[in-house]
Write a structure and sequence with these properties.
Helices cover 36% and strands 25% of the residues. The chain is of the alpha/beta class. It folds into three domains: 146 residues, 3-Layer(aba) Sandwich (Rossmann fold), CATH 3.40.50.720; 160 residues, Dihydrodipicolinate Reductase, domain 2 (2-Layer Sandwich), CATH 3.30.360; 73 residues, Alpha-Beta Plaits, CATH 3.30.70.120. It is elongated. The termini are far apart. The structure holds L-homoserine. L-homoserine (HSE) binds next to α7.
Amino acid sequence: MISVAIMGHGVVGSGVAEILTTHKKKLFASLGEEIYIKHILDLREFPESPLADRFTKDFDDIINDLEVRVVVEVMGGLKPAYDYVKRCLKAGKSVVTSNKELVAAHGAELLAIAKEENVNFLFEASVGGGIPIIRPMSQCLVANIVDEIAGILNGTTNFILTKMIEDGMQFEEALTLAQELGFAERNPAADIEGHDACRKICILASLAFGKHVYPESVHTEGITKITLDDVKYAEAFGCVIKLIGKVKRLEDGRIDIIVAPMFVPNKSQLSNIDNEFNGIMVRGDCTGDVVFYGKGAGKLPTASAVVADVVDCCKHLKTRKFLYWADGNGKNIISTEQSVTAMYVRAKGSDVISKAENIFGEISKIEKDGTPDNETAFVTKEMPYGEFLEKADLLKNSGTEILSTIRIGDL
Ligand code: HSE
Protein backbone atom coordinates (compact mmCIF):
# COMPACT_ATOMS: atom_id res chain seq x y z
CA MET A 1 0.00 0.00 0.00
CA ILE A 2 1.32 3.46 -0.91
CA SER A 3 0.08 6.42 1.13
CA VAL A 4 -0.65 9.71 -0.59
CA ALA A 5 -1.91 13.09 0.58
CA ILE A 6 -4.06 15.56 -1.33
CA MET A 7 -3.70 19.29 -0.66
CA GLY A 8 -6.95 20.98 -1.70
CA HIS A 9 -10.49 19.59 -1.93
CA GLY A 10 -11.97 21.94 -4.52
CA VAL A 11 -13.19 20.92 -7.97
CA VAL A 12 -10.02 19.09 -9.04
CA GLY A 13 -9.05 17.83 -5.56
CA SER A 14 -12.45 16.24 -4.96
CA GLY A 15 -12.19 14.69 -8.43
CA VAL A 16 -8.81 13.17 -7.54
CA ALA A 17 -10.23 11.69 -4.32
CA GLU A 18 -13.23 10.42 -6.28
CA ILE A 19 -11.17 8.68 -8.99
CA LEU A 20 -8.74 7.19 -6.46
CA THR A 21 -11.79 5.75 -4.67
CA THR A 22 -14.05 4.68 -7.55
CA HIS A 23 -11.18 3.36 -9.73
CA LYS A 24 -9.34 1.59 -6.91
CA LYS A 25 -9.41 -1.83 -8.62
CA LYS A 26 -8.40 -0.45 -12.02
CA LEU A 27 -5.48 1.41 -10.45
CA PHE A 28 -4.46 -1.64 -8.40
CA ALA A 29 -4.34 -3.65 -11.64
CA SER A 30 -2.00 -1.08 -13.17
CA LEU A 31 0.25 -0.58 -10.14
CA GLY A 32 0.07 -3.88 -8.29
CA GLU A 33 -0.42 -1.98 -5.03
CA GLU A 34 -3.21 -0.02 -3.39
CA ILE A 35 -3.04 3.78 -3.35
CA TYR A 36 -4.31 4.91 0.07
CA ILE A 37 -5.46 8.50 0.64
CA LYS A 38 -4.07 9.18 4.10
CA HIS A 39 -4.61 12.94 4.42
CA ILE A 40 -6.66 15.60 2.67
CA LEU A 41 -5.67 19.16 3.49
CA ASP A 42 -8.39 21.80 3.35
CA LEU A 43 -9.46 24.61 5.64
CA ARG A 44 -13.13 23.80 5.09
CA GLU A 45 -15.17 21.04 6.77
CA PHE A 46 -16.50 18.09 4.76
CA PRO A 47 -18.52 16.09 7.33
CA GLU A 48 -20.58 14.33 4.63
CA SER A 49 -17.53 13.03 2.73
CA PRO A 50 -16.88 9.27 2.87
CA LEU A 51 -13.28 10.33 3.55
CA ALA A 52 -14.28 12.71 6.38
CA ASP A 53 -11.83 11.05 8.82
CA ARG A 54 -8.85 11.86 6.58
CA PHE A 55 -9.29 15.65 6.52
CA THR A 56 -6.80 17.92 8.23
CA LYS A 57 -6.27 21.66 8.38
CA ASP A 58 -2.63 21.25 9.36
CA PHE A 59 0.09 20.89 6.69
CA ASP A 60 2.42 19.47 9.38
CA ASP A 61 0.30 16.29 9.38
CA ILE A 62 1.46 15.71 5.80
CA ILE A 63 5.04 16.94 5.86
CA ASN A 64 5.84 15.02 9.08
CA ASP A 65 4.22 11.77 7.97
CA LEU A 66 7.04 9.53 6.71
CA GLU A 67 4.53 7.08 5.23
CA VAL A 68 3.27 9.67 2.74
CA ARG A 69 5.38 9.21 -0.39
CA VAL A 70 3.36 11.23 -2.90
CA VAL A 71 1.63 14.57 -2.34
CA VAL A 72 -0.95 16.01 -4.72
CA GLU A 73 -1.15 19.81 -4.83
CA VAL A 74 -4.48 20.99 -6.24
CA MET A 75 -4.95 24.15 -4.20
CA GLY A 76 -4.11 26.51 -7.08
CA GLY A 77 -2.38 29.88 -6.78
CA LEU A 78 1.10 30.45 -5.39
CA LYS A 79 0.42 30.96 -1.69
CA PRO A 80 0.81 28.64 0.11
CA ALA A 81 1.19 26.11 -2.74
CA TYR A 82 4.76 27.13 -3.66
CA ASP A 83 6.04 26.86 -0.09
CA TYR A 84 4.23 23.58 0.59
CA VAL A 85 5.38 21.95 -2.65
CA LYS A 86 8.99 23.00 -2.05
CA ARG A 87 8.91 21.60 1.48
CA CYS A 88 7.36 18.31 0.33
CA LEU A 89 10.05 17.85 -2.33
CA LYS A 90 12.80 18.71 0.16
CA ALA A 91 11.29 16.17 2.56
CA GLY A 92 11.79 13.49 -0.12
CA LYS A 93 8.16 13.24 -1.21
CA SER A 94 7.19 13.21 -4.87
CA VAL A 95 4.71 15.92 -5.84
CA VAL A 96 1.98 15.97 -8.48
CA THR A 97 0.29 19.26 -9.32
CA SER A 98 -2.34 20.65 -11.68
CA ASN A 99 -1.27 24.19 -10.80
CA LYS A 100 -0.16 25.94 -14.00
CA GLU A 101 0.52 29.21 -12.18
CA LEU A 102 2.97 27.39 -9.91
CA VAL A 103 4.74 25.51 -12.71
CA ALA A 104 4.93 28.58 -14.96
CA ALA A 105 6.35 30.71 -12.14
CA HIS A 106 8.64 28.22 -10.37
CA GLY A 107 8.93 25.11 -12.56
CA ALA A 108 12.70 25.30 -13.11
CA GLU A 109 13.39 25.69 -9.39
CA LEU A 110 11.01 22.91 -8.34
CA LEU A 111 12.38 20.53 -11.00
CA ALA A 112 15.91 21.26 -9.75
CA ILE A 113 14.88 20.47 -6.16
CA ALA A 114 13.20 17.25 -7.30
CA LYS A 115 16.41 16.29 -9.13
CA GLU A 116 18.50 17.06 -6.06
CA GLU A 117 16.21 15.02 -3.79
CA ASN A 118 15.82 12.20 -6.34
CA VAL A 119 12.02 12.47 -6.28
CA ASN A 120 9.48 13.26 -8.98
CA PHE A 121 7.67 16.49 -9.70
CA LEU A 122 4.94 15.83 -12.28
CA PHE A 123 2.37 18.24 -13.71
CA GLU A 124 0.50 16.60 -16.61
CA ALA A 125 -2.78 18.30 -15.59
CA SER A 126 -1.28 21.80 -15.66
CA VAL A 127 -1.70 22.05 -19.46
CA GLY A 128 -4.72 20.81 -21.39
CA GLY A 129 -6.57 19.34 -18.37
CA GLY A 130 -7.37 15.75 -19.32
CA ILE A 131 -5.42 15.87 -22.60
CA PRO A 132 -2.10 14.04 -22.42
CA ILE A 133 0.54 16.54 -23.55
CA ILE A 134 3.42 16.77 -21.03
CA ARG A 135 4.15 13.04 -21.07
CA PRO A 136 3.81 12.70 -24.89
CA MET A 137 6.17 15.64 -25.33
CA SER A 138 8.73 14.46 -22.79
CA GLN A 139 8.57 10.78 -23.78
CA CYS A 140 6.86 9.87 -27.06
CA LEU A 141 8.13 12.88 -29.04
CA VAL A 142 11.54 13.03 -27.38
CA ALA A 143 13.36 12.03 -30.57
CA ASN A 144 12.11 15.20 -32.26
CA ILE A 145 13.47 18.69 -32.32
CA VAL A 146 10.31 20.71 -31.77
CA ASP A 147 9.86 23.42 -34.38
CA GLU A 148 6.57 24.86 -33.20
CA ILE A 149 3.75 24.45 -30.71
CA ALA A 150 0.43 26.20 -31.24
CA GLY A 151 -2.68 25.65 -29.24
CA ILE A 152 -6.07 26.65 -28.01
CA LEU A 153 -5.15 26.33 -24.36
CA ASN A 154 -8.03 28.00 -22.58
CA GLY A 155 -11.51 26.48 -22.55
CA THR A 156 -13.32 29.55 -21.23
CA THR A 157 -12.19 31.88 -24.02
CA ASN A 158 -12.72 29.20 -26.64
CA PHE A 159 -16.30 28.75 -25.41
CA ILE A 160 -16.92 32.52 -25.54
CA LEU A 161 -15.45 32.87 -29.05
CA THR A 162 -17.43 29.86 -30.29
CA LYS A 163 -20.67 31.42 -29.04
CA MET A 164 -19.77 34.71 -30.77
CA ILE A 165 -18.95 32.88 -34.03
CA GLU A 166 -21.79 30.35 -34.11
CA ASP A 167 -24.62 32.11 -32.27
CA GLY A 168 -23.75 35.76 -32.89
CA MET A 169 -23.61 36.44 -29.15
CA GLN A 170 -21.89 39.57 -27.87
CA PHE A 171 -18.76 39.01 -25.76
CA GLU A 172 -20.41 39.92 -22.43
CA GLU A 173 -23.41 37.68 -23.09
CA ALA A 174 -21.16 34.73 -23.96
CA LEU A 175 -19.03 35.32 -20.86
CA THR A 176 -22.13 35.30 -18.64
CA LEU A 177 -23.25 32.02 -20.23
CA ALA A 178 -19.77 30.51 -19.69
CA GLN A 179 -20.00 31.50 -16.01
CA GLU A 180 -23.51 30.06 -15.69
CA LEU A 181 -22.33 26.76 -17.17
CA GLY A 182 -19.34 26.69 -14.82
CA PHE A 183 -16.65 27.03 -17.51
CA ALA A 184 -15.48 30.48 -16.45
CA GLU A 185 -14.28 31.41 -12.99
CA ARG A 186 -16.32 33.99 -11.09
CA ASN A 187 -13.33 36.26 -11.65
CA PRO A 188 -12.56 35.41 -15.27
CA ALA A 189 -9.70 37.93 -15.71
CA ALA A 190 -6.93 35.30 -15.97
CA ASP A 191 -8.88 33.56 -18.73
CA ILE A 192 -10.15 36.47 -20.82
CA GLU A 193 -6.95 38.51 -20.51
CA GLY A 194 -4.90 35.55 -21.76
CA HIS A 195 -2.83 34.92 -18.60
CA ASP A 196 -4.03 31.32 -18.17
CA ALA A 197 -3.11 30.46 -21.78
CA CYS A 198 0.19 32.28 -21.28
CA ARG A 199 1.13 30.11 -18.28
CA LYS A 200 0.34 26.99 -20.32
CA ILE A 201 2.38 27.95 -23.40
CA CYS A 202 5.25 28.93 -21.05
CA ILE A 203 5.21 25.40 -19.58
CA LEU A 204 5.16 23.79 -23.05
CA ALA A 205 7.91 26.11 -24.33
CA SER A 206 10.10 25.41 -21.29
CA LEU A 207 9.66 21.69 -21.82
CA ALA A 208 10.26 21.82 -25.56
CA PHE A 209 13.24 24.17 -25.59
CA GLY A 210 14.90 23.28 -22.29
CA LYS A 211 14.95 26.73 -20.67
CA HIS A 212 12.32 28.19 -18.37
CA VAL A 213 10.14 30.76 -20.10
CA TYR A 214 8.56 33.08 -17.55
CA PRO A 215 5.08 34.52 -18.27
CA GLU A 216 6.43 38.08 -17.85
CA SER A 217 8.58 37.57 -20.98
CA VAL A 218 5.62 36.68 -23.18
CA HIS A 219 3.53 39.22 -25.08
CA THR A 220 -0.02 38.39 -23.95
CA GLU A 221 -3.32 39.71 -25.27
CA GLY A 222 -6.79 38.52 -24.31
CA ILE A 223 -10.09 38.50 -26.17
CA THR A 224 -11.91 41.38 -24.48
CA LYS A 225 -11.55 43.70 -27.49
CA ILE A 226 -12.90 41.22 -30.05
CA THR A 227 -16.23 42.35 -31.50
CA LEU A 228 -18.88 40.63 -33.58
CA ASP A 229 -17.75 42.79 -36.52
CA ASP A 230 -14.27 41.26 -36.27
CA VAL A 231 -15.83 37.79 -36.13
CA LYS A 232 -17.77 38.53 -39.34
CA TYR A 233 -14.74 39.95 -41.18
CA ALA A 234 -12.77 36.83 -40.16
CA GLU A 235 -15.53 34.66 -41.60
CA ALA A 236 -15.46 36.64 -44.86
CA PHE A 237 -11.69 36.04 -45.00
CA GLY A 238 -12.12 32.24 -44.56
CA CYS A 239 -11.03 32.25 -40.92
CA VAL A 240 -12.26 32.00 -37.34
CA ILE A 241 -10.89 34.00 -34.42
CA LYS A 242 -9.25 31.87 -31.71
CA LEU A 243 -7.08 32.72 -28.71
CA ILE A 244 -3.79 31.08 -29.65
CA GLY A 245 -0.73 30.35 -27.54
CA LYS A 246 2.16 29.81 -29.88
CA VAL A 247 5.91 29.27 -29.72
CA LYS A 248 8.19 28.81 -32.70
CA ARG A 249 11.89 27.99 -32.92
CA LEU A 250 13.76 30.37 -35.22
CA GLU A 251 16.80 29.48 -37.33
CA ASP A 252 19.18 31.26 -34.93
CA GLY A 253 17.89 29.10 -32.05
CA ARG A 254 15.85 31.85 -30.38
CA ILE A 255 12.12 31.47 -29.92
CA ASP A 256 9.13 33.58 -30.91
CA ILE A 257 6.39 33.15 -28.28
CA ILE A 258 3.05 34.89 -27.98
CA VAL A 259 -0.52 34.62 -26.68
CA ALA A 260 -3.03 36.58 -28.74
CA PRO A 261 -6.31 36.27 -30.61
CA MET A 262 -5.57 35.27 -34.18
CA PHE A 263 -7.37 34.71 -37.47
CA VAL A 264 -7.14 30.93 -37.89
CA PRO A 265 -7.72 29.70 -41.46
CA ASN A 266 -10.67 27.30 -41.82
CA LYS A 267 -8.29 24.69 -43.23
CA SER A 268 -6.22 24.64 -39.99
CA GLN A 269 -6.93 21.77 -37.61
CA LEU A 270 -7.19 24.32 -34.79
CA SER A 271 -10.13 26.08 -36.49
CA ASN A 272 -12.48 23.20 -35.62
CA ILE A 273 -11.67 23.09 -31.90
CA ASP A 274 -14.82 24.58 -30.45
CA ASN A 275 -16.60 25.35 -27.19
CA GLU A 276 -14.70 24.49 -24.01
CA PHE A 277 -12.37 22.06 -25.78
CA ASN A 278 -8.63 22.55 -26.12
CA GLY A 279 -6.40 21.56 -29.04
CA ILE A 280 -2.62 21.58 -29.19
CA MET A 281 -0.47 21.11 -32.29
CA VAL A 282 3.15 20.06 -31.81
CA ARG A 283 5.34 20.19 -34.91
CA GLY A 284 8.31 17.85 -34.60
CA ASP A 285 11.11 17.66 -37.14
CA CYS A 286 10.62 13.89 -37.49
CA THR A 287 6.87 13.50 -36.92
CA GLY A 288 5.53 16.61 -38.62
CA ASP A 289 2.32 17.86 -37.00
CA VAL A 290 0.82 15.93 -34.09
CA VAL A 291 -2.47 17.27 -32.72
CA PHE A 292 -3.92 16.66 -29.25
CA TYR A 293 -7.61 17.36 -28.65
CA GLY A 294 -9.94 17.00 -25.67
CA LYS A 295 -11.36 18.53 -22.52
CA GLY A 296 -8.91 21.08 -21.21
CA ALA A 297 -10.71 21.67 -17.93
CA GLY A 298 -13.31 20.22 -15.58
CA LYS A 299 -13.32 18.03 -12.50
CA LEU A 300 -12.83 14.49 -13.81
CA PRO A 301 -10.80 15.23 -16.98
CA THR A 302 -8.24 17.19 -14.96
CA ALA A 303 -8.32 14.72 -12.05
CA SER A 304 -7.70 11.90 -14.52
CA ALA A 305 -4.38 13.49 -15.51
CA VAL A 306 -3.48 14.07 -11.85
CA VAL A 307 -4.20 10.46 -10.91
CA ALA A 308 -2.11 9.20 -13.87
CA ASP A 309 0.81 11.21 -12.47
CA VAL A 310 0.19 9.78 -8.99
CA VAL A 311 0.37 6.25 -10.43
CA ASP A 312 3.55 7.18 -12.30
CA CYS A 313 5.11 8.52 -9.09
CA CYS A 314 4.09 5.34 -7.27
CA LYS A 315 5.74 3.28 -10.01
CA HIS A 316 8.92 5.35 -9.67
CA LEU A 317 9.35 5.72 -5.92
CA LYS A 318 13.02 4.83 -6.09
CA THR A 319 13.96 6.30 -9.46
CA ARG A 320 13.46 9.76 -10.82
CA LYS A 321 11.78 10.13 -14.19
CA PHE A 322 13.77 12.45 -16.40
CA LEU A 323 11.69 15.59 -16.66
CA TYR A 324 13.77 18.72 -16.45
CA TRP A 325 14.49 22.15 -17.85
CA ALA A 326 17.06 24.72 -16.80
CA ASP A 327 16.33 28.19 -15.51
CA GLY A 328 15.95 30.87 -18.20
CA ASN A 329 16.77 34.56 -18.47
CA GLY A 330 14.55 35.47 -21.41
CA LYS A 331 17.53 36.10 -23.71
CA ASN A 332 16.43 33.27 -26.00
CA ILE A 333 13.13 35.06 -26.74
CA ILE A 334 12.75 37.62 -29.54
CA SER A 335 10.80 40.80 -28.87
CA THR A 336 7.21 41.19 -30.05
CA GLU A 337 8.37 43.92 -32.42
CA GLN A 338 10.68 41.44 -34.16
CA SER A 339 7.97 38.80 -34.52
CA VAL A 340 6.84 38.52 -38.16
CA THR A 341 3.10 38.45 -38.84
CA ALA A 342 0.43 39.56 -41.28
CA MET A 343 -2.24 41.75 -39.67
CA TYR A 344 -5.97 42.30 -40.02
CA VAL A 345 -6.99 45.94 -39.65
CA ARG A 346 -10.52 47.31 -39.26
CA ALA A 347 -10.60 51.05 -39.76
CA LYS A 348 -12.89 54.02 -40.25
CA GLY A 349 -12.34 57.11 -42.38
CA SER A 350 -12.23 58.30 -45.95
CA ASP A 351 -10.17 56.56 -48.65
CA VAL A 352 -8.84 54.07 -46.12
CA ILE A 353 -7.88 51.48 -48.73
CA SER A 354 -5.85 53.83 -50.95
CA LYS A 355 -4.13 55.33 -47.90
CA ALA A 356 -3.39 51.83 -46.58
CA GLU A 357 -1.96 50.77 -49.95
CA ASN A 358 0.36 53.77 -49.94
CA ILE A 359 1.58 52.94 -46.45
CA PHE A 360 1.55 49.12 -46.30
CA GLY A 361 2.04 48.28 -49.99
CA GLU A 362 0.04 45.29 -51.16
CA ILE A 363 -3.03 44.61 -48.97
CA SER A 364 -6.12 42.38 -49.28
CA LYS A 365 -9.41 44.19 -48.74
CA ILE A 366 -12.06 42.11 -46.96
CA GLU A 367 -15.58 42.46 -48.33
CA LYS A 368 -18.50 41.61 -46.07
CA ASP A 369 -22.23 42.22 -46.17
CA GLY A 370 -23.62 44.98 -43.99
CA THR A 371 -20.39 46.92 -43.55
CA PRO A 372 -21.17 50.25 -41.84
CA ASP A 373 -20.54 53.40 -43.93
CA ASN A 374 -17.00 54.65 -43.84
CA GLU A 375 -15.67 51.41 -42.34
CA THR A 376 -13.40 48.94 -44.07
CA ALA A 377 -11.10 46.05 -43.26
CA PHE A 378 -7.96 44.72 -44.87
CA VAL A 379 -5.10 42.31 -44.29
CA THR A 380 -1.47 43.34 -44.68
CA LYS A 381 1.36 41.18 -45.96
CA GLU A 382 3.76 39.70 -43.40
CA MET A 383 6.15 42.09 -41.68
CA PRO A 384 7.82 42.48 -38.28
CA TYR A 385 5.17 43.62 -35.78
CA GLY A 386 7.27 46.70 -34.93
CA GLU A 387 7.13 47.79 -38.59
CA PHE A 388 3.36 47.21 -38.59
CA LEU A 389 2.97 49.47 -35.54
CA GLU A 390 4.94 52.26 -37.23
CA LYS A 391 2.85 51.97 -40.39
CA ALA A 392 -0.39 51.83 -38.39
CA ASP A 393 0.66 55.12 -36.77
CA LEU A 394 1.10 56.64 -40.23
CA LEU A 395 -2.40 55.48 -41.14
CA LYS A 396 -3.80 57.06 -37.96
CA ASN A 397 -1.97 60.29 -38.73
CA SER A 398 -3.67 60.35 -42.13
CA GLY A 399 -7.02 60.82 -40.36
CA THR A 400 -8.02 57.15 -40.14
CA GLU A 401 -9.45 55.70 -36.95
CA ILE A 402 -8.15 52.17 -36.36
CA LEU A 403 -10.96 50.18 -34.74
CA SER A 404 -9.15 46.89 -34.28
CA THR A 405 -6.08 44.91 -35.26
CA ILE A 406 -5.67 41.13 -35.03
CA ARG A 407 -2.80 38.85 -36.06
CA ILE A 408 -3.24 36.44 -38.96
CA GLY A 409 -2.20 33.06 -37.59
CA ASP A 410 0.25 31.14 -39.77
CA LEU A 411 -1.38 27.89 -38.66
N1 HSE B 1 -9.85 28.36 -16.65
C1 HSE B 1 -9.18 27.31 -17.37
C2 HSE B 1 -9.79 27.19 -18.77
C3 HSE B 1 -9.29 26.04 -16.61
O1 HSE B 1 -10.83 27.81 -19.02
O2 HSE B 1 -9.24 26.53 -19.63
C4 HSE B 1 -8.32 24.99 -17.00
O3 HSE B 1 -7.00 25.37 -16.86
